[in-house]
Amino acid sequence: MPVWQAVVYGVVQGLAEFLPISSSAHLTLLPWLFGWEDPGLAFDVALHWGTLAAVLAVFWKDWIRLLGAGLTGGGSETDRRLFWGLVISALPASVAAEVIEELPGWKLHALKAIRYGRFMTTNVVVSAKDARPTRYPLTAARSDVAYNLDAFVIRTPGNFDEHGGCFHNIVGDPTARVIWDDPDHTIKTGTLRELFRHHPEYRERVVRVEVQRWPHGMPLYSVGRMKTYEQLAEPVGGIHFCGDYTWASNMEGAALSGERAARQIHGTQA
Ligand SMILES: Cc1cc2nc3c(=O)[nH]c(=O)nc-3n(C[C@H](O)[C@H](O)[C@H](O)COP(=O)(O)OP(=O)(O)OC[C@H]3O[C@@H](n4cnc5c(N)ncnc54)[C@H](O)[C@@H]3O)c2cc1C
After folding, report:
1. Based on the domain organization, do 121 and 213 belong to the same domain?
2. pLDDT tens by residue, 229-241
3. Which of 7-11, 131-135, 181-185 shows the lowest mean pLDDT across its residues?
4. Within this chain, do residues 188 and 131 fall inside the same structural domain, yes or no?
């Protein structure tokens, strides 16, 4: 990779990392937009090390103050709480459940009931009706697997015949587990065969298919889980809990659970 491209990546990373957006999408978009070679995982990791170095350099005084407060017990109560709050929030929930022994049994029980399932997206871009016909290469696929959960209902808005569009296909946990390690071309083939069965009109209009694996896609339903909702949301000793597993498994549930935690904190400080 030429040095100037690395500089562009660095500038985009520096500008985008502090925005509440995906921390890797901008690195995927750049090569896609300009036709550059994908820089690879090692380069991504190096960029994030750069971000870490920048954060440490800019906030070094705050870090020393927080470390002093947290580790030596000096400084203000707010700094001590913030330090330990940061430590705890950097632990995945299941690990936190193991290490925070002071959590009461009912809370541990509720947290341990959460299981995130696998999730796969197999998006298909199709062209407009009068575009040049395509012939997407099909290989083999499993005959006993339904490669699509939503019967191709979730799609970009608009008239596909006029402008083309994208089907946002979803493969749920039970199926995703079966096909997880299959090569991408068989998953794409299975998805397309199913698309053509539902919609033969797209047989010569497939432009692109993408497979994305989400190892912790969505909280799974399990018997008795609904009973734990109230307990999941309940703060314990100044620790507040939010996220889609405490409300509903979607963006709205996640946002509302954050608002609830903020209200709880505000209530305890008022
Ligand atoms: C493919 C896919 C499509 C979806 N589509 C939709 C949709 O169309 N509409 C909809 O409403 N919902 C959708 N959802 C669900 C929605 O994205 C989630 O419910 C929502 O993002 C959950 O928000 P959250 O804040 O609880 O968790 P997340 O958004 O997962 O945020 C948790 C954050 O914690 C970070 N983290 C994890 N471990 C640590 C650690 N140890 N230390 C520090 N940070 C850590 C993660 O990097 C992440 O940024 C979709 C989900 C997936 C996977």
Report:
1. yes
2. 889 999 988 889 9
3. 7-11
4. yes
Could you tell me the residue range of the domain that residue 34 belongs to?
A: 3-58
From atom 44 of ligand 1, which residue's Cα is the shortest distance away? Answer: 90
Residue 32 has pLDDT above 80, yes or no: yes
Answer whether 270 contacts ligand 1 (Cβ < 6 A).
no
**One domain for residues 212 and 225:** no
Beta carbons within 8 Å of 227's beta carbon, 6+ residues apart: none
- State the amino acid at position 8 in one-letter form: V
Tell me which H or E stretch contains 155: none
CA distance 243 to 114: 12
Q: How far apart are alpha carbons 131 and 202 in whole angstroms?
A: 11
Instruction: Copy the structure tokens of residue 156.
Output: 């970009």
Burial of 124 (0-12, 13-18, 19+ CB in 10 A): buried
Q: Please identify, among 35, 58, 81, the residue that sits at the C-terminal boundary of a domain.
A: 58
- Asked whether the beta carbons of 219 and 249 are under 8 A apart, the reply is yes
Hey, whose CA ends up nearest to atom 24 of ligand 1?
243
pLDDT at 242: 93
Instruction: Determine which helix (DSSP H) or strand (DSSP E) holds 118, and give its type and residue range.
Output: strand 116-126
Q: Is pLDDT above 70 for 270?
A: no
Q: Given 14, 42, 58, which residue is the final one in a domain?
A: 58
Task: Record the pTM.
Answer: 0.68
